[in-house]
Amino acid sequence: MRRSLPIAVAAALCVAPLCGQESIAVVRVSPFTAAGVGASEASMLERLVVSYIVETRSFRVVDARGQDRALAETEAALGRGETVADALPLAADFIVDGSLGRIGELFVLSLEVTRVSDGEMLSVSDTAESISDIVLRARASTRRLFGFESASERQSSAEPPAD
After folding, report:
1. Is residue 120 a contact partner of residue 114, using CB atoms and an 8 Å limit?
2. For each of the chain's 163 residues, which pLDDT tens digit applies?
3. Secondary structure in 3-state letters for 79-138
4. Residue of 39, 67, 83, 149 with fewest CB within 10 Å of its CB?
């Protein structure tokens, strides 16, 4: 069951070029939660993860704040008499949630992606002794979440940091 979500993401990526830009899957990123760390750190890590998702060039990305702005624009467009089809914001195919926290002396980054069509979820987590190390590992965690991680990235994330 855990393998079907990456397969579905990969299938969407393979079919998207055949159908043009409009068929690229939409990912909505929810605000990250923070436990034992500052909300600003979680927010900055959220922005970093969004940039890594965009970097794949495989998804159209929206976030909760962006959808709020899009809904406000939709209301304005409807008020001007535009049709609903022209004004609707993008609906998400996948939702990404993240959390940044501490367990004892370790920092923990957890990322989850949920497929909207059936609710299937995939999760990855990483731990480090400093927030800086979590930031450095965020790209590999994001890529792993969507099945983009290469063998060399898997190898380097499995190795403990040098002293």
Report:
1. yes
2. 444 544 444 444 444 444 444 578 999 999 999 999 999 999 999 999 999 999 999 999 987 677 677 777 777 777 888 776 655 556 889 999 999 999 999 999 999 999 999 999 999 999 999 999 999 999 999 999 999 875 455 555 555 555 4
3. HCCCCHHHHCCCCCCEEEEEEEEEECCEEEEEEEEEECCCCCEEEEEEEECCHHHHHHHH
4. 83
